[in-house]
Amino acid sequence: MARAQEVAARFPGTTVQHFHRQFHQIGRLQLKKCSPNPWNAFMRQARAQNNAFPPGERMTLTELSKDASERWKLIPPQDRIQTVNVEMSELQEKRAMRSKTAYNHPKQVFQDCQATLQGVRDVDLHGRTGVEVLLFTSRGHVRDWANAAVFSTNTRLQDFFKISTSLSVDDFAYHMEGFCIGGVAGAASSYATEILNLKQQVKTLINEGLAAIVSPRKAPRMVYINFKQNISHVHNIVIEGWPLDQFRSPGDFSNHDQLQQLYNAWSDGKAYWRHLTPAEITLREASDRALREQEEAARNQATLDSTLSSSLLPTPSSSLSSTPAMPPSEMLVPSQDSSVGPSPIPASVPSSGGVTFQSVLAVNGSGMIEMRTTTRGKRSGAGEKRKKSGDSAPNKKKKAKTSTQTSMTTSLTSANVAETIPPTTSPLAGSAPTHPQTSVVPRFTSASSHLLSSTSTQFVSYQCPPLPFDTPSPPPSLAPTFVSQPVVPLHGVASSGPVTSGTFSVFKL
User: Fold this and answer.
1) pTM of this prediction?
2) Beta bridge partners of 438
């Protein structure tokens, strides 16, 4: 200090404090703030009293300071601290909070930033100490007025920064500002997180709208699959303005643009719930009724087709056409009063191993099945006790028992013999006689024995070409074919539709 006084005496117009700071390199930045004194507390009390007066009666700041000074002098010094004791504690607390309290207006933020940064520049730490400083500043909110700023004490720092980061200090400051404004959560959030947030927001908007439109009833769970049956038909409501082509749950969409479009539509009111009008409800009920009838008809047709398919087996193969037919002299066609006898087996027809059957169609409505056996090789289980078949005996003919509940479905294995049936009267078609038909009396084999009824029954067998039951009867010249009158299986279910290719059945007319 003595050295500073000596130098200050040699240079008039200078102060001792100036040379003292220069000698000791004391910074100019005010590092310690003054604590509030009793006079500050007394002035704060005087301003509060002045603000209590109505407008027009308040003193100006100059008048208030003069009046407060005169009153302050009248107070004894030993009583001054006690007079402003309460104001002193409040003032200290206010100053302590001022450094931590955020400003209410962007202008205050801007002014504080500019003053503080200017003070940093005025310190001139580099000029006094040679320390290099590179300082970046950025606003923390988009509403702030202060822009990003860069302060450096030397251009070498800027060159070094560009070489190290491949960015200029200005570009880096702008990147930092964007990061600070967006926040850590916004900058680090991934695309998947944003997609999940959009899905949840759209779902919330849709559920809130559904709860509002069905109020005061309990809001149902939103269902997108079968929406008409589960939501629209139950509550008579629909969604208008759905912006996308596909009506699915928001959770099924993964495209950001589609989810954003959904969110904008529901948040802006372009997509909304509404009640159906009475006319729309009537039209919907009629449409549903027609659809149910159509589905029921389709199910009935499918059941009918399945019944026919299970009753009909493949027709004779094309190889049968080359098999010589039975000579007319060997055909057995009984008259109306004649009894039914077995048809002779033509010598040209080869017999197969196992049990063979030969059917004869009688004009008088009676039917007979002739069952024969052929010689077969030695079975593998020779020597073991044979199981009773109960169906046949070697070289012995049986007459089939009658049964009205059994249908026969067999596959043809040998030649077919055609014969013409005179006009008859069908019990299902009334008294109208049917046209002469060409029927086929096949010789067939079966894995099991089926017995047919012969009481008031005309047994008709048919072969390819397959024709529907309702096809008009062709002339006899187009034989072989089958009768065109309605055919009912023995189990009692009416049948219709085309004859499946490759089948042979026996029906009860």
Assistant:
1) 0.29
2) 420
